[in-house]
Amino acid sequence: MAVRALFFFALVVLMIVGMAVLIFQIVSNVGDLSGWWALGAIPFLLMVLIGRSVMRTWRPARRLINAAGSLADGDYTVRVEPVGSGSMRAAMNSFNQMASQLETADEQRRRLLADLGHEMRTPLTVVRGEIEAMLDGVHEVDAEHLGLLLNEVGVMERLLEDLRTLSLLDAGRLALHPEETDVVALVEDVADGYRRRAAEAGVVVEVAAGPPTAVMVDPVRIREVMTNLADNALRAMPDGGRLGFQVAGRSPVAAITVTDTGTGIGPEDLAQVFDRFHKGSTSRGSGLGLTISRDLVEAHGGTIGMASEPGVGTTVTIELPG
Questions:
Q1: How confident is the model at residue 251 (pLDDT cuts 50, 70, 90)?
Q2: What are the DSSP calls for 233-299, one per residue?
Q3: Which helix (H) or strand (E) holds 78?
Q4: How does pLDDT run across 163-183, given as a tens digit for each residue?
Q5: What is the rounded CA–CA span in Å between residue 287 and residue 296?
Q6: Smallest Cα–Cα separation from 283: which of 248, 315, 236?
Q7: C-alpha dist (Å) from residue 44 to 5, 18, 23, 41
Q8: Maximum Cα–Cα distance for the chain, whole Å?
Q9: What are the φ and ψ backbone dihedral angles of 300, each rounded to 5 degrees?
Q10: End-to-end alpha carbon distance in the chain
């Protein structure tokens, strides 16, 4: 900026000097003035050239300013055609990229609100219907119907907690509390917690694990991942099957595999299985469990992947570094 200001200052001085010399020669009526006319015209020619250059820069800059105003007013579809100098083109390309990202974020926000309203509507409808039936005397106020209400309230609580976890992950504010954890013991504990529920559904729970494998993880969050995967597996096996847990690896790296013999997932759903609120045609979950599981695993520096075949089953593999 200082160099540019100095350049324009020198140009103005040159123009003033040239004009002063030319006027002096005209007033003095001294000799041939053709050379002095040229001297006086040089600053004007330079000013014309600079003016054209400024206008070539100003027009795209003005378009960029107008587009930024539209973006500020909420029009995320606005774009500018990259023209002008290299730096101006770079600025316009950056603006288009920013506008595209804001448009995508706005679409995701709208979808999230719509999906949240849909997911909350189902348990609220059940709760309202049961309460109205009790008030009208259609249903008795007994343990069975109160238990149903309690289950639906639990569904809403789980959904709200999932949303809270996602918001913390998005903001980078989810606090992890890593400690040396034996993942073999953790997985066996999770499997034991599901044996009774699995047996009622005709599902056999199996655990294959080697010696203790200690890694530095947040045991609460990794347990949350495992319960999400176990819940999904049981929902995929309404007619019974096998739920398998396997732990392999050596400290400080562990690989955990969760396998089921359920309905499986088709290729079209498998590609989006970790997307928020994405649910297959047979899914009865909220559509948030796998998204949270992926984000929690990646927050630990690990990876998660899924392989599935319709009618055969699904396998989820997690790798956790120490």
A1: low
A2: HHHT-TT-EEEEEEEE--TTEEEEEEEE-SS---HHHHTTTTSTT---TT--S-S-HHHHHHHHHHH
A3: none
A4: 888 888 877 888 899 999 999
A5: 15
A6: 236
A7: 18, 10, 15, 5
A8: 119
A9: -85, 0
A10: 51
